[in-house]
Amino acid sequence: MKTLIVTGGDINLEQLKEYGEKYKEQNIIAVDKGLEELSKLNIKPTHVVGDFDSISKEKLEHYQGNGQITFHEYRPEKDNTDTDIAMKLAIQLKSDTITIIGALGKRMDHTLANIHILKYALDAKIPCQIIDNYNKIYLIEDRQTLYQNKTHGKYISLIPLTSIVEGITLKGFKYPLTNHSMPIGISLGISNEIVEEIATIEIKKGVLIVIESKD
């Protein structure tokens, strides 16, 4: 099954409604404050995860009365974020794909951590993406094919997650590369664009953060 994780960052309700419809018969994991956003659209999650310090007691009790929802409650003093725990749950559920909404927002520490925990899904060989109105973020470690008319936005940025990414080859891009090594800490891969109908990213070693974005 597919899994949608709704966590506590910035959320556009129209986008959440769209994905809520897509995942109606799939797994929907509400992460703490994400439950509040789902409740605005009357979308029922299959799982709720968190320490529940960011949701009203009334809202929590309302959903706890539904026997079809599984709750996973944790103490606030823990080693992992609620979204981290939700990601691990999605993997335990043997998800075919994972989409995360609400992973980006004002708290840059949480935003960076949420991008890093995409590595769990990558290691488990599960396609996983973070989505908001302006960005689609995912990790690759081998090859990715992109279609010009299906990207989330016109800009494609590549940022090393590992200390160095070796053997990067870009085809179909405005700024191509051939067997190039990109160390962490440089901005070479920012704001590329696809100029052909189909573009490819290939890497030989390391992990790249890929961001499809628009203004």
Describe this structure in words.
By secondary structure, the chain is an alpha/beta fold. It has helices at residues 13-22, 34-40, 57-64, 82-92, 108-116, 118-123; strands at residues 3-6, 27-31, 47-50, 70-73, 98-101, 128-131, 135-140, 143-147, 155-160, 164-171, 177-183, 192-193, 198-202, 208-213. It has a ten-stranded mixed β-sheet with strand order 4-3-2-1-5-6-7-14-9-12, with helices on both faces. Helix 3 links the parallel strand 3 (47-50) and strand 4 (70-73). The chain is elongated. The mean pLDDT is 94.
What percentage of the residues does DSSP assign to strands (E)? 25-35%
Question: What would the CATH topology of the largest domain be?
Answer: Rossmann fold
Shape field? elongated
Number of domains: 2
Describe the biggest sheet?
10 strands, mixed
Please write the string of helix (H) and strand (E) elements.
Answer: EHEHEHEHEHHEEEEEEEEE
Strand pairing plus helix content: what structural class?
A: alpha/beta
Q: How large, in whole angstroms, is the Cα Rg?
A: 18 Å
Strands, count: 14
CATH-wise, what's the superfamily of the largest domain? Thiamin pyrophosphokinase, catalytic domain
